[in-house]
Amino acid sequence: MRAWEGAERFIDLLEVPLTDRGSRLLVYRTDDGDGGGLRVAGAVYERSPGKSTHLRRIAVLDGAGRPLEITAIGPEGIAFGASAASLALVGADSLSIGSSNTGGAVTVLLEPFGTGTDGQAVSEVDAAPIHWHGTEGTVASPDAHGAVRVLLQPGGSLLLRIGGPVAKAPEPGDHAALLAAAAGRWADWFTRLPAVRGTDLELARYAWWILASNIVQLDTHPGIDVVVPSKQGYVAAWQWDSYFISIGLRHGDGRLAADQIRLFFAEQSPDGGLPDVVHDHGTLSCVGDMPPGDLATMARIHGADSPMVTESGMPITKPPLAAWAARAVDAVAGTTLQSELRGGLDRLHEWWFARPAPDGLPGYEHVYSSGLDDSPLFDDGGPVFAPDLPSYLVVALDAMADLAEDAGDAAAAARHRARADKTAAQLVDRRFDPELGRFVARTPAGRRTTVTPFALMPLLTGRLPEPVKAALAAQLADPASLGTSFPLPTVGFSEPEFNPDRMWRGPVWLNVNWLVVQGLLRSGLEAEAAALAEQTVEMVVCSGGLHEYWNPLTGRRAAGATTGFGWSAALFIDLAVWLAHRDG
């Protein structure tokens, strides 16, 4: 049995394309119903696969010119016609197609996106040239429609490269070696899969495939493997995505997990702030860095005169989870990442505390800094002073105090712990509404009392008075609040803003559930934590995929959600590992 048995059934080439570690190519089925056609797109920052086509169609034809059906799909490649031919991805920009040594000749039909003025085949992405080289020597010129047919004798192969200089023609037998190398890489990766329960194993294998298949190297950071949220539209590193991804990776690859966090500290500003995004062209650190599409979205939602659109210097970042994530990686992987980043982590926390609200607790100036792009918490504009941010800072300070204690620095440990205690006490005193029995947010309009699970994040402090803790725990079971059929909705079920399919206004997100599980654990509510973790893992398994977010009423993929999503894969792994250890 192959190490990835079961994972391949999720790679349907429709919603989930074939890609490979480091590859910028995405291979989909065509929708023309011929059974064997493929489309090749690019993984490009701020560009959807539907608008980054390299090849409109690849098909492998038999001796009579009929397309061979796709008969097998796996992490290592695609087989056609009961292995009469196969396809494998090579490096960042190439793919190889080869015919079987024992079968008859096949023809590869190639239809590039277009042709340049010189007749060169080109991609939709920056008109990059497309080169192909076959073992049969000369390759036919494009026909009137730009299509090319390449004959492959038994054992022959064809290498295609998107962009760059003309590639050296492959030697006979190269394709078989490339296919074997791909299978070997994946077999090695799956030996790192952590132990989970049998009920979770198949989806855990798929999750483990997602984490490696979403690896790219950014132009700004060559030599560093970056696990992006998804090669389908999210081809960059987002700060809190990278932290959550590191949480899953730590169970099998500590170095890779640590690199996801190091990436952002390599871009830390002198004042201590970290960028929201690291991408192929630089960083997104302030409003002035936002892509035009994002600015248009902000203008539509918040108004063209909103400071979140007009103040080019307004910083954009993500919640401060770095110290916690680094310590979590170290605890499982045996790394020393938190100690390595200690100075940068201290500067990061000072940066956040330099942004107080009128009540002394920091807030989010820009909606993107919260990670909650469409949450009703920001319907009144910004800044917003929600209960989650101080909670994250308490966890971070506790992590720094633990590090200082490890190093024998009692003074630093006491300083961090005292600040954590003070912040947690202020959070209860200034943001908890005893009449409502929940934490509320402060906005430019005053208070926003919309029920969201972000009001549960003070559980993370581990310092809540018993009545407050009990009030928060009660919301988890209330069907009119957060106790939907598939918890946790990102807006309470009875709230007027609730929409089960709209981004942060109702759907279930794995990072939210994971954070609340951690909060329950830190508050001594292990039974409640286990129940939520179990519900979450069961929902994901039954939904048949690892999506960006889920409908809280059906437990299925929510409308508009990307699938094959990085932090969903990572946090599913982490929850499944924890449940396996707990059961064992």
Characteristic key phrases:
15% strand, elongated, 584 residues, single chain, alpha+beta, 6-stranded antiparallel sheet, 5-stranded antiparallel sheet
Structural description of this entry:
The chain has 584 residues and is an alpha+beta fold. Among the domains are: 7-187; 238-329, no CATH class. 35% of the residues lie in helices and 15% in strands. The chain is built from 16 helices and 22 strands. The strands form 7 sheets. The protein has a 6-stranded antiparallel beta sheet with strand order 4-5-6-7-13-11, with helices on one face. β4 (70-74) and β5 form a beta hairpin. The two termini are 25 Å apart. The model is unreliable at 167-172 (pLDDT under 50).
Tally of helical runs: 16
Instruction: Tell me, rounded to a whole number, the average pLDDT.
Output: 93
Question: Which descriptor suits the 3D outline?
Answer: elongated
Structural category is alpha+beta
Reported for the largest beta sheet, the result is: 6 strands, antiparallel
Brief digest:
With 584 residues, the protein is α+β, with helices and mostly antiparallel strands. It has helices at 174-190, 198-213, 239-249, 254-265, 292-302, 307-310, 322-333, 337-340, 342-353, 367-370, 388-406, 410-431, 466-477, 510-522, 526-543, 566-583; strands at residues 25-29, 38-42, 53-61, 70-74, 77-80, 85-90, 94-99, 106-112, 114-115, 121-122, 130-134, 148-152, 157-162, 215-216, 226-227, 237-238, 277-279, 282-284, 432-433, 438-439, 441-443, 446-448. Helix 4 runs antiparallel to helix 7.
